[in-house]
């Protein structure tokens, strides 16, 4: 188990380090990074979510119970973070990064671990987790950005931001293609898949490039708060909701796994595009990725025994 976790996390850490090295040595030039972030946010990440949700095999799984547990635990967790805003961050932009660090997840690590533990069944359970959490956390994050990023937003502009957000659009498209049975046409599916596969390495390079940048809120408090919430509060909340709804077995373990993952690399891209504290977000991602090498084996050893 430890080997599987390390084999998943080490490449992520290396890509972050490579991004930092490329920028610090001026290999690609400063103009490359904003363009790469924009490409990832508006094209590659939506393609990743569309393909993953459109091609998921969900037959024979406790989809409704698992989705209910994940939705409720995510909403409870997000609400707790908002209530604790004054304790975890000094300004709105920094709070948006703490919020993303507390509720978003790295689906690459989650899917790899689920597949390694349960095989094809784990892949299907990971797809359910993505279908439940990805749209939910993106809607919550858009609302938090609209409220706390410092950009004045009317109710109409918040609604517009939610429905025009490329990540939410990608999730909606994937779910619609899956539910209707249309699926991705044979000639288009490989293209969407290839674009989605490019999202993760490029996003991690951008995260590494952002490390070391000056920004408000890089003290220990927001970093510790985001990580404590992600690795302790949210998993415990999810466990309690599993007990409440009677979700057990493989579905419960995968639900707990996804709620205990380090935050997503796409969090940084979202912070850059929507007025958040992007350097703080990059440091939260890097710290949580390293901490996950310790926290995930502990969590899985407790749940699998």
TrEMBL record:
It is found in: Cell membrane. The chain crosses the membrane at residues 63-83, 123-146, 167-188, 283-304. InterPro entries: Mem_transp_PIN-like (IPR004776), Na+/solute_symporter_sf (IPR038770). Keywords: Cell membrane, Membrane, Transmembrane, Transmembrane helix, Transport. It is a multi-pass membrane protein. Belongs to the auxin efflux carrier (TC 2.A.69) family. PANTHER family: AUXIN EFFLUX CARRIER FAMILY PROTEIN. This is AEC family transporter. The lineage of its organism: Bacteria, Pseudomonadati, Pseudomonadota, Gammaproteobacteria, Pseudomonadales.
